[in-house]
Each structure stands twice: as C-alpha cells, then as structure tokens.
Amino acid sequence: MRGRSDPSGVSTEVAIVFGVLAGVGAALAARPVLEAAGPLAAVAAFAAAAFAVVLAVRVARGLAFTVLAASGRAVFSRAPRPAVAVGAALAAVALATGGWLLVRRSPPAEEPLVVRATKARVILVAVDGWIPQLATGAGAPGATSRFRYQKETTDPAAFWTTVATGEPARRHGVGALELVRLDGLVAPVRLTAGTGWYLGRLLPALGLAREESVTSAARRVPALWEVAHRAGLASLTVNWWTTWPADDAGGVVLGNHLFFAARAGAKLDREGWPPAASERAAILASRGGERTTGADRLVADARGLDAFAIAAFRQEVARARPRLALLYLPGPDILGAALSEPGRTVAERVALANALGEETRAIAAFLEGPDVFGGDADLVAVVVDGGRSAKHGELLLAGSLAGSSAPGELKPADLAPTLLAALGVPSSREAEGKVDLRLLRAGAASDATVASWGRKRSGGGPALDPKEYVENLRSLGYLR
Question: Shortest CA distance to 236 belongs to which of 226, 306, 245?
C-alpha cells in the first residue's frame, strides 16, 4: 500500500473486496429465510442486506483510510458520489422486481370441485422401512399389480408429503426434518449448507431461535385429506407426516404426535380433529415404555406407535367407513435406522433386529387381514418403502378398481391425483402430479380437471410449544 500513489484508491479497493465477501455471506445467510418467506419478503430482505453491506463497506474503507493516514502517507480525499450509489440501488431494485414479475406465477382462478357420483372407497397404507425378506408372503397376497418407484429425496417427511400432495418438495415446502424458527418469522426455515452453525447452534443458544421440525404449518399445498374434505368426501388420516397440529380442514385427522401426547396423559388440543376423535383414540395408547431408556425405549416407541396407529385406524374405519382412509406406519424405518447406527452394543443390535423382524411380521399380518387386502375397499394402495437408507420402493394395488397392467415404474407424485380420480375428484392442472391410468381399471378414473385444488388455508405456526414434539422425534432417531 505504501507503494501506491493514491492511498484513497487503495482503501476503495480494500472496501470493494470486503463488500463482495460481505455480500456473499449475506446471501448465504438469507437463503433459508428467502425460501420460506416468499418474493415480497425476499425483496425486503435483499434491501436490508444491501444496506448492511453498504454500511460495512463504508466502515471498512474508513478503517483503511485510518491505517494509511497513520502510515504517514498523504491521503487524497475524493468527493462522495451519492447519485451513483442511489442510481445503482434503484437499478438493482428494478432488476429484482422485473425478474420477479417474469418468473412469478399468478394463482389460477378458483373453480368448484364437482365430484363424479360414485360410492368408491379408497385406502392408502404407507409402510416405511419395509424389508420383504422379514415378512411371510411379503404382506401382499391380494395385490393385483405392482409398480416400482424412485425417490427424489430420502427424507421421510419430504417424500411422504409428496405422496400425499402430488407435488415435489420444492413446491410443497417440506424439504427437511430439521428446521429452525427465528424470532419474528411465522414460517420455520430449513438448515442449508453453511447456515447450520449459526441457525442451528448460535441463535438458539442466544435465545433468538428455537429448534423445530416439520408441522402442518410448513406445508404450502393442500394434501389428499384436505382436497377430499373440500370435495365433500368423508376422509380419515392417521399418523401421517405434516398432520400436527390438526385443524378442521381435512376430515378426521389423528396427528403424528397424538400417540405421545396420549401416552403421557397430556392435553389433546390440536393433536387431532375433531376433538372427540382424538379422545377416542387416546384411550388406545399404551402407557407402557415411557420409563425405559436406550434401545428398549426406542423399541417400545416404534412398536407402540405402529400398534396405536393400526388400532385407531381400525376403530375409525369401523365407526364411519370413510371414502378415503390413510395410514402411515413408521416402525420398521425407525428400528432399521437405529440398527444401522454406529456405536450400538451387541445386545442392542440383537434387541433391535428381533424387534424389526417381529414388527415387520405384525404389519404383514395386518395387511393380509380384513382391514386392508382382505377387506371390501374398492381400491387398496399400499406403499412399501425401503426407508431412509433406500432410494426406491414399491406400490401394491388391489381391489375392484385396481388396474391389472404389467409392472412398471411410477412417479410418487402421481399417486395422490390418481387416488382422488378414483373417488371422482377432478385432477388439478396446476399440480405436478398427474393421473396414472395404468393404476386403475379402464373407466374407473374421473377425466375431469380443474385449474387448482385450491390454496392451503393459511395460518400461523403451531399453537402449542413444539419442544416436546421435537424431543419425541429425536427419541425416534429422526433428529440428532
């Protein structure tokens, strides 16, 4: 710097370099917030970041001036050019606004969901972490057709939300299990590369954020049960991802935290809907296992959760015979993931392996029984997924409406609109998932379409403190 004839030029160069680094850092820091906040908030966030960078550049340039002045060299000051700075800022805002106007999608016009007259009943059962070698008969003796699929993501919340909504993760908004809620923001943000250290550690330590996991508030689009409810069809959803906290938008919903709340004797507010259904199901929750620790606690939680979900499903189906019924069973995935964890003792591995085999056979017996493949539903769809360690799975179909075509590949996003079409619900032209006619008998699907299934009802975050919800997911091995 002493060799330069214009120290003010050197300080400007130092400030520019610092400004570029600060700008890149600000963009990385803002990325999780921008993904959850939307375009208007994105413009505001970028404006705030730009102001912070300009302020930081001025400070850096002032420090460089001070160092040069202290070195004994003459400093040739330059007149500030506020017009240039203001013009650049206005140009940046104009470019950002123009880009947003070009890429934004205007919401489609609302259309009524006119359902084709039918009395069809559809059941969707999801088994996570399925290992067919551990089940007698693979649990699908009544399946008339099978379709394999590949997963875009192995995150269980993201994948099963795709199955339930007909949209990929980039559109339904549930991209990861681990989230952080920052003070002042309604929507939680996802931890991305380079942000985990301060979003997941620093800010929670300072009391400016708290750990969360995926809830119904994180999902941006309506799910199967909400579309069916809007179409006037009775539906039942048991233990599916993004059902907690529950409300009145989707028929009978027994949320994915109800088991833990019922077992602990806690309040059932928004654990399910309607409240009477939550109270009926809570009676079925076993009170054993909560005082155990280690692998025994994990086995008790995984097997108890599946047993509770199956019992609640049977009870509500027998009581109301809904047109659409969904059930999610995560026990094998929880046990399989725990079995693969390093650091487990030999005794723990033996206990987990035995529990995994017993749980798989119990689920296989349930699938073979009168509630699923042996029942009278017009269409039974069972998704047997390999779990978090696998990128593929299989769809098993049965019932009078099931197609009998040769096995093939399936897109997971196509399942939701196909099941709704079997119930006579028009498919959404806005959704990425489309009706797959191979899955249904000829003439069984409604060929009507609508512009959209509607928007997901907006609302704030969970009314309950999600700390216990996060701790229960951590005890199941979903969170670190």
Answer: 226
Q: Are residues 65 and 141 in the same domain?
A: no
37 in helix, strand or coil? helix
Task: Count structural domains, the chain.
Answer: 2
For the record, the structure tokens of 317 come out as: 């189906």
Contacts of 480 (CB under 8 A, 6+ apart): 178, 474
Residue 212, φ and ψ in degrees, nearest 5: -140, 175
Is residue 115 in some structural domain?
no
Q: How does the average pLDDT of the chain come out, rounded?
A: 81
**DSSP codes joined into one string, 51-74:** HHHHHHHHHHHHHHHHHHHHTT--
Q: Taking each helix axis as running N to C, give the angle between helix 82-103 and helix 39-70, from 0 to 180 degrees, rounded to the nearest 10.
A: 150
Shared-domain flag, residues 379 and 455: yes
Before 407, cis peptide (omega within 30)? no
- The whole-model pTM stands at 0.77
Q: What is the pLDDT of residues 173-230, one digit of tens each?
A: 887 777 776 776 666 666 665 666 666 677 777 777 777 677 888 888 999 999 999 9
SS3 assignment, position 324: strand
Q: Which of 4-13, 43-52, 181-190 has the lowest mean pLDDT?
A: 4-13
Beta bridge partners of 392: 150
Query: How many Å apart are CA 348 and CA 340, to the nearest integer?
Result: 11
What is the edge-to-edge ordering of all strands in the sheet holding 178-182? 189-190, 178-182, 209-213
Do residue 408 and residue 302 come from a single domain? yes
Q: Are residues 349 and 377 in the same domain?
A: yes
**Any idea how long the chain is?**
480
- Number of neighbouring beta carbons within 10 Å of residue 229: 21
